[in-house]
Amino acid sequence: MTTLPILTTERLRLRALRPDDAESLHNAFGDVELMTWWSSAPDATVDDTRRRVAANSDSDAYPTWAVTLADDDRALGWVVFIPRRSGIREIGYIMRRDAWGQGYAREAVSAVIDYGFGDLGLRRIIADTDPDNAGSNRLLETLGFTREGRLRAEWETHIGVRDSFIWGLLADEWRVSRTPPRGE
């Protein structure tokens, strides 16, 4: 089992997901509206969320950070960073509704991107979203991802067969976006 490093930002602490995060994360995974764009149905019970969290908290296939406030260890959401091929990872994220609109997702995802391109030396990070998930698509675009394609009828989900947007971000693009213009 790979040990995930603790990542910190000005307001957040990202630490390895633990089984005891299930209760807090059920506020996200049990939320029917929030789970509309997820590839699986919302969790009906906390036990369902426990199984979901257990699968990710003990997996090299799905390395997952719990996103917490710097001064509060309760999980607001998670960021998963799935190895795909050499030099490439797929990023995914979810935040509880009470954490929306505060920039936490952007801050957490940025920290994982920094880790991926910096510490891991990745060349590319990808993401896969539902075309109708406006919030997630806007976040990826804001972070500098390029929409590279649309896979038609890609996912069979709890709301039916869905298309998928494929997003990509290259290490050089991230470095350029993080470098302040000369003279600042």
TrEMBL record:
Ranges for domain N-acetyltransferase come to: 12-172
Stored InterPro entries? Acyl_CoA_acyltransferase, GNAT_dom, N-acetyltransferase
Domain of life (superkingdom): Bacteria
Q: What is this protein called?
A: GNAT family N-acetyltransferase
Matching Gene3D superfamilies = 3.40.630.30
Q: Which UniProt keywords apply?
A: Transferase
- What Gene Ontology molecular function terms does this protein carry? acyltransferase activity, transferring groups other than amino-acyl groups
**Entry keyword annotation includes Metal-binding:** no
Please give the organism.
Flavisphingopyxis soli
Tell me if Oxidoreductase is a UniProt keyword of this record.
Answer: no
